[in-house]
Amino acid sequence: MAITFGGDEKGEIELRDFLELVDKSNDVMSRDVLISHAGHLRMLSNNRQFLANVIIGELKNIYDFQPKNNYTAQTIMLGGVAGKFYVRANVWLPARLLHPVNYESEKRLYSFERGHDHNFEFITAGYLGNGYETHIYDYDGNCEGYVGEKVELKLLERTVLHQHKVMLYRASRDVHIQKMPADDFSISLNLLAPPIPGSKQYIFDLESQRIASILRANYIGQSWLIEAAGYLCNDDISDVLASIAGRHCSAETRRAAQRALAVRYPDLFPER
Ligand SMILES: [Fe+2]
User: Fold this and answer.
1) 3-196 carries CATH number 2.60.120.10
2) Which one, 34, 47, 71, 96, has least CB within 10 Å?
3) DSSP 3-state of 260
């Protein structure tokens, strides 16, 4: 079974108090710290007014909608501290509300029928509607991480994120698939830890049990910066690049630094 929190908190909490409580936690948003806030997240899900207030505020400034929202169109950012934690609401549309022409893209946006993991830990609570149905698998995140790599996926549970249910998704461990669009308009609340440095988020082919594609990885953004340094920087940056090439936690980032060294200092660091 995936990790579901069985508490029965009846009280409510305001969003600002929830954010303050989480902010008072340890600086590192570990799994244990997230778990310690499972009851608070359920109390936030008991508060039937706060999200309406947020939405009203956003609607009043709709031309300046969510300027700090780096997530997809299904997400409303509710707060957090950069690099420490984030709180957001996710909207799950029923099939009848998916775009009639752009149906396949929207299914991808909402992760329907795409097995995926997350490269960050988070707890989630059902807030509105029947919630999405999800099938959760477990895998060993210590794979090499290339497309086509075989991974063993073990089915843990088929479940529905109904209102006030609180669950934990473990980074690079839990793989899930939203089976079909939710029955009705649904919203979940998430408390997220930041992405684990050097980690990737994958799409999985559940039938063949292989990595189908890489959805997100820090190195994608870092690699071009490092490679550009090889072409643009005139100052001696061999120390910086050599340090990244030797010690960075991501193999792809190390390789990017090696390529940049080969471009910038071809005599000293010939391309391998
Ligand atoms: Fe997901």
Assistant:
1) yes
2) 96
3) helix
